[in-house]
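Exercise 3.2. Students should predict the tertiary structure of the chain below and write it as structure tokens, then compare their answer with the key that follows.

Predict this chain's 3D structure.
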Amino acid sequence: MGSQPEPEPLPTPVTQAGRDGLAAIVARPERAVVALDFDGTLAQIVADPEQARAHPDAVPALAALAPHVASVAVVTGRPAGVAVRYGGFAGVPGLEHLVVLGHYGAERWDAVTGTVRTPDPHPGVAAARAELPGVLDTHGAWRGTWIEEKGQAVAVHTRRASDPEAAYEALRAPLADLATRHGLVLEPGRMVLELRPPGMDKGVALAAYVREVGAEAVLYAGDDLGDLPAFAAVEKLRSDGVPGLLVAADTVMPELAERADLVLDGPASVTAFLRDLAARM
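Answer key:
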């Protein structure tokens, strides 16, 4: 029989902490958690969020990786069930123990049960949603904005506006005020402003899940401002002796790219990295 081809070399993290994190994941994958954002990391950013789907290579790469590691978790601001549908994660061999932490960890979908656990909605979300049309109408020059219902949150997208960046900047202050009046927080992102309940973010969700699994190494990949708390959680874990690797899915958000150990070029590069990482295990 012929010998197996050598796997593709993995990119080298630019920091020593990142190199240590990657080495720990490769050396003991069964003790590692691989956590990933969805939009912009596993799925391309698109003008209509309802049309977002996981990159065609994402599920095969995750299915190749998942059996080797302690857990794969998708950590997203989307409702967990929506991320499962748009990702095509349900019923995939190899992904039997995938976890989706939706709404920044407020919701959880486990592949092993196929069910979503969700808390009661925060009353401020419905109240803010009722006022949103009036707030947006006050800024009539910014027609083309779009409201996304998220159950546990509500988001305003400006990507379709005639001047997306101007619309985004014009709406930040009034939406921050709306959020405050209803006991919510405003989460800025890539041409999206989300109003959601306080007390939960991707960092809180990731740190809790790493503790639950008892992981001894962690990888987190993300692309947007909402991923910064997860970056901070990995940095805190590293200071506590848990090796970690921080991956920025692209260079659009310099706040992430500057803190990342490894910068990739969008979902295609992320999924290729995951596939090559699996081949090393």
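Discussion points: The longest strand covers residues 217-222. The mean pLDDT is 92.
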